[in-house]
Each structure stands twice: as C-alpha cells, then as structure tokens.
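Checked the freezer inventory, then went back to the computational side. Two predictions to log before the end of the day. The first one is the construct we discussed on Monday; recording sequence and tokens without edits.
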Amino acid sequence: MGKLVAMRALRDAGCAAVASEVRCPIARFRADAAGYLDARPKRGAAGVAVGVAGVGDPAVAAAGLAGVIERGELPRTVIVEVKVSRADYLRDAASAAELAARLDGLLQRRAELAGDLAAAAAERDAAGATRSMLFEELEPWERTSGLSVCGPLLDAAIAKLERERATALKLATLCRYHLASYLIMLTPPGLLSPGEVAPGWGLVEFAPEADLGGEGTLVVRVPPRLHGPTELHRQRLLRNIAAAASAAMLRSARAELEQRREVDQAAE
C-alpha cells in the first residue's frame, strides 16, 4: 500500500517515470519507490504552495509532494523510502558506527569461544584423554559441543547486526553521496516526529485508509532538502527506474497469462 501511495504521489507531483523496488545508482540498496522529473521550470499541482505541519501547527499540506518537489533547469530525481513501523525506521536510522562496534564485539567473542574450545581439546589430548566417549564417532561432537550450542546463537546475532548495519548505511549513503535530488521518508501519521528524521531526508505522512487520489492523503512534516546528484547518478537512476518498471510489467503480464491458462484448463 505504501509503495503504491508513493508512486501515485510521485506521478501527481509531475514525475514522468516512476517505479518501485529501484536499485540505487552506486550501491546494492533498493529504493522502495523512485521518480524522474523532466527539466521544465514548472511547479506541479498548479503551483500550490505547501506549508509544513510541524509541532503545534495544525495546517495540512494538502498538495502533497507537488508543493515540495520542483522541476529545475536540469532533470531531477526522487527516492522515497516507506516505513510502516517505528522499529523498522529506528533500526534503519541507527548509527552505522555503533552497529559496527557491536558487530566487532560479537565476532571477537565467537573467535574467543572457538579458541577456548580448541585449547581445551589440545590440553585434553596432551593429557591422554582422547577417548572419553564410549563410542569413537561421538568424540568430535564432544570436542565441539560448546561451539555447537553457542555458535548458532552468535551466528544468528551476527547475521542480524550485519543486516541492520546494511540498512543503516542505506539512509546515510543516499544522503552523503547525493544519489537523488530529493530523499523522502513516507510514513503513517504520527510514526515519527520531525526531530527523528534522518539528516538530509524529508518526512511525508500518508493515511493508509485514504483513497490514493483523494485530497489530504499526504501531509508534509519536513520538506525534503534539494541535493545535487551528478549527471551520471541521474542517468543511472533513470535507467534503473526503467528497468524496475519493465520488470514489474513483465511480472504482471506473466501472472495474467498464467491466470488465463488456468481459466482455460478449468473450462476444458
């Protein structure tokens, strides 16, 4: 639902091309939605200005993205990330350095555990206690039993932190390298306060139950900052938008064809 709202909002704001699940220009990350604005000095939605509904301000930014996304002398690009829960956003916005430190600690702990087990096995071998088990085939299990219990738990924690660090780097990387002209966070109402928004990002709220084309669907809480992507990044993002849109169309056509085949087979 959120990605559909994002794509509809981008189209309403004047984007000539939009798609979901778009690869970023220089990283392995995927944007939830992205759009491309032609180079025309023209505002969307008849130039309606949009206010910011900040703390203590009850104004509703009814014009949606059209009031904060402008065409310029050069084409512009927009990346939208959709977050539907605070845990999802706060995990992605966490400090990459903090996550890296925690990850290093877990990796060090696992290395220490493996070393302790190896040392214990060597000490026991030196003492001549190499056949403590009744069945010889169980001896290797005894040697690694500690690692077999703690290892998977550490591996799971390490994998989780690696995923969290990757998503934390995503928000920072998109802003640091100016990979799009506008970076926008799209969330349900009240999910985030303006002070919680990642640096360089805008905050727009959408009502999940609202009609996709209805007025008041979007409320701008923090206007997005205008970044300056390079021409190469602009062209790459446009190419990736086209690729994502083409893939989505082919998936839809394939699903429709399979559905027709099922109907034909049932009719026979």
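The second is the one RB wanted added to the comparison set:
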Amino acid sequence: MNRIQHFVEEELSTSLLSLATEAELPLEPAGDAESSHCIFTPLHYERNYAYPLIVWLHGPNDDEQQVTQVMPLVSLRNYVGVGPRGTLAATGSADGYSWSQNERHIMLAEQRVMSAIAAARRWLNIAPSRVYLAGYGCGGTMAFRIALNQPLAFAGVLSLGGALPTTLRPLCQLHAARRLKILLISGRDSQQYPEARVCDNLRLLHSAGMSVSLRQYPCGDDLTMQMFSDMDRWIMEELTASQVFQPDPAEHRSGGKS
C-alpha cells in the first residue's frame, strides 16, 4: 500500500472521502496506453467559469488514479485536476508506474503531461494561464523537470518530497523559468529527500534568481493534511497576487469553498 492510499484511509475515511463519494466526482480515463490519464472534476462544476488546473504526477508504484485521491485533500471545488500515468512500469512484485530521469522517459513524460492538459481542456473550462504542475516523490522531481523545460506552459510548480533534478541541464531555460512560481514541500526527517539536499536545492534555485517558497513539516516521508491545505492556500495566494483569479460563481452562492 502506498503512502497516499494509507493517508487517505487513515485520515479521511469519515470526512472528505465520504463527501467525494456522495458527489460522484466524474473521472475521465483515456483509452490509449501511451496517453493514459484521469480527470478530476470539481464539485458543483460551473461550465462558464474558467478553472485553474492542477496536473498531478503520481508517486512511485502508483498510477494516474492517484489524482482522484489527492484532489479532494487539496480542494473539492477550487480546481480541475488531471493525472497522467508514469512512463516506467514497476518490476518484480511492485505494482503501478514511476517516473525516470533519462532522456527518453523525460520526453515521453512531457508528451503525456501535454496530452493530459489538452484532454482536460477538451472536456472542461480551463484557464490557460492557471495551469500548475505538481507531484509527489519522483513525480515531484519530474514536475520540476517538465516545468523548467517548458516554463511558459505553467504558472507554477509544486513538489511534495521530490528533489530538483540534477542531470541533463534542468536549468537550460533559465531566463524563461524565472517567471515560474515554485512551492517546495518536505518533511524535516525525510530519508528520501533529506534536509541537506533540500538546502542545496534552495541555494541553487535562489542563486539562479527563481521565486521559491518552502514549507517544511515535522515528519518524515509521510504526507499530512496540512501539506495539502498549504498547497491549496499557496496556489490561491499566487492567483490573487497575479490578478488573474476570477471569483467562482459557486463561492458567492455558498459563501466559500472547501
């Protein structure tokens, strides 16, 4: 059982998950194995409102369905979400997929991300300037990679426990990448992404002139509810600061979102 699944079962079995089940949130699996993805539609979707999009890159030994577990933890109403499938199938007794940092897999990952974004835009009303790329573990590292390679395609990038990639010149588009907003989330006692490496990544990004926010939590490699709440808060603050955020009609009717 992966950490996301464990977290959901332990923390949310009586709250957000039950609400998501009652809402019967629609999923949109793609049929083609080379572009498999899953779409999360927000609760009380308003077709005339252009939603921010979160592209979620799942963690190791998981798949595109992880986006349906993550998005209710971030917000049931604020975003459309889409999750592409990892490019590297697990071997041995492990299930699911992962993301590999070699040239062929990076190219394939970019294709899958762009295909997933295009699919979300075909089905739902997405604001083109409000696309955020996020991921967990190796998915966070790939989110960094793709956002830095194609910085004009994204408003920001969020990594939960995924280090900055170091091979194949990740900062080759540095001038354009300086416009990206970055949120780095880590556990203080993480073994997969230790504090020393977090500090190294921060120094590199700051020296490159990039805008980085760090959120560190008193935990190891586990995920916490606060991480997802802070993820939602950070994106909303960025949208407001950039003056591209439009009020959601549902918010005015209901008095707020969750």
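For RB: The mean pLDDT is 85. Residues 103-123 form the longest helix (21 residues). Let me know if you want it refolded.
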